[in-house]
């Protein structure tokens, strides 16, 4: 332990000697295999700071010092969201006044990668230049530890992901072996679960994204799901499948927490307040899988739910397979080309991807929703009654006697829903 007398202004040489001594101590800890918690305890003890290492979006991974007092101060100042994340985007390397004290947030990076944030709080007084120099050294040490931990975790996650993928493909082995192997990863596959498939939403077209950046987002997204899963309870499997994160949330029929509430809690805690660079994502949720045999089907349901949910409801959607309605039946059609052919046969030119076709489809949907009440449809679309009558005539010339044939209206209604999932 490096001892220091706080509250005194040290000579320049003494200050740098203290910084070097701290750096040497921390380097030795890294060589001895110390984790971030040990580093945090050492730094907070030497510099007399409340100290935390967080992900780049503010999720605490290690902390030291007077943790309870620091947390209360951050909460009082509005710097903690309701999931417990620190709002690191409101901090600054130069320091921000925090009550009677000061907050500093420093970026931890290596090789162009954003690895996290160093959050430092002094409850009573400012963080001096000497401490600031020391903290810059600490970010380097933290980057070494995080890089090492991520390298180990990447190998472990690959094996976990490969195993869970084999379970979904039904080729992981006999049930007894699967349970035993899952237990070695700390997972429990003996209980009913909901398969939750989460995907980052595509970046806007105007936002150029490199493959390295995309991978960094995915890794951070996967770590968030694993962290939240650990908080929700023991033995919850969560794995990164490169473009999606799959988590098996347990269902307790006699428990106090409803399955939907558990999903909502998980999604809420992963999303946080979208500060600090968090990306929006969409989620698909399967039916309850009561046994291992049900898992492949449940995974397919979750995949289909997230795919359809994003197309129908847009980004940031959470879609349950049981709530897909007619889309649930469409999801069971194995040949997507057959669905597209049905849409084209029923809608004709209204299936085109043009502004005129989209406008007519909107009018057609309103007419179907109002059971072809022309006056009500005109009011909802802010059209004159005669304009709506003209549109009805145009639609019937294109599609047939919609106002008189209920079976045709059913076909058209299904085709409009099918069009949502074929684009």
UniProtKB/TrEMBL annotation:
Residues 175-308 form the CdaR GGDEF-like domain. Residues 360-418 form the PucR C-terminal helix-turn-helix domain. Belongs to the CdaR family. This is PucR family transcriptional regulator. It comes from Nocardioides bigeumensis.
């Amino acid at each position: 332990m490096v001892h220091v007398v706080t509250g005194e202004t040290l000579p320049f040489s003494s200050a740098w000697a203290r910084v070097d001594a701290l750096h040497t101590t921390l380097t030795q800890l890294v060589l001895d295999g110390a984790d971030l918690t040990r580093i945090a305890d050492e730094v907070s003890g030497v510099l007399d700071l409340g100290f935390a290492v967080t992900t780049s979006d503010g999720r605490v991974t290690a902390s030291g010092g007077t943790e309870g007092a620091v947390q209360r101060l951050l909460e009082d100042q509005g710097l903690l969201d309701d999931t417990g994340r620190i709002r690191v985007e409101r901090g600054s390397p130069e320091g921000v006044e925090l009550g009677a004290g000061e907050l500093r947030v420093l970026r931890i990076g290596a090789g162009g990668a954003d690895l996290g944030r160093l959050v430092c709080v002094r409850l009573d007084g400012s963080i001096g230049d000497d401490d600031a120099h020391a903290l810059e050294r600490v970010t380097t040490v933290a980057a070494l530890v995080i890089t090492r931990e991520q390298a180990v975790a990447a190998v472990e996650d690959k094996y976990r992901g490969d195993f869970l993928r084999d379970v979904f493909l039904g080729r992981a082995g006999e049930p007894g072996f699967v349970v035993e192997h899952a237990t070695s990863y700390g997972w429990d596959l003996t209980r009913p679960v909901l398969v939750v498939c989460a995907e980052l939403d595509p970046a806007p077209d105007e936002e150029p994204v490199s493959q390295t950046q995309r991978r960094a987002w995915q890794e951070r997204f996967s770590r968030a799901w694993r962290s939240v899963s650990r908080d929700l309870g023991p033995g919850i499997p969560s794995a990164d499948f490169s473009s999606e994160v799959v988590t098996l949330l347990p269902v307790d029929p006699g428990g106090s927490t409803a399955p939907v509430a558990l999903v909502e809690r998980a999604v809420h805690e992963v999303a946080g307040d979208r500060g600090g660079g968090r990306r929006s994502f969409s989620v698909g949720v399967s039916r309850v899988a009561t046994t291992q045999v049900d898992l492949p089907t449940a995974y397919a349901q979750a995949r289909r739910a997230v795919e359809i949910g994003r197309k129908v409801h847009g980004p940031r959607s959470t879609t349950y397979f049981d709530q897909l309605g007619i889309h649930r039946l469409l999801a069971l059609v194995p040949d997507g080309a057959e669905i597209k052919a049905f849409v084209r046969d029923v809608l004709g030119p209204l299936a085109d991807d043009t502004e005129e076709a989209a406008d007519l489809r909107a009018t057609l949907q309103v007419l179907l929703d109002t059971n072809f009440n022309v006056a009500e449809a005109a009011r909802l679309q802010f059209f004159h009654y005669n304009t709506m009558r003209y549109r009805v005539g145009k639609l019937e010339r294109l599609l047939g006697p919609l106002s008189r044939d209920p079976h045709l209206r059913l076909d058209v209604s299904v085709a409009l829903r099918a069009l949502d999932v074929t684009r």
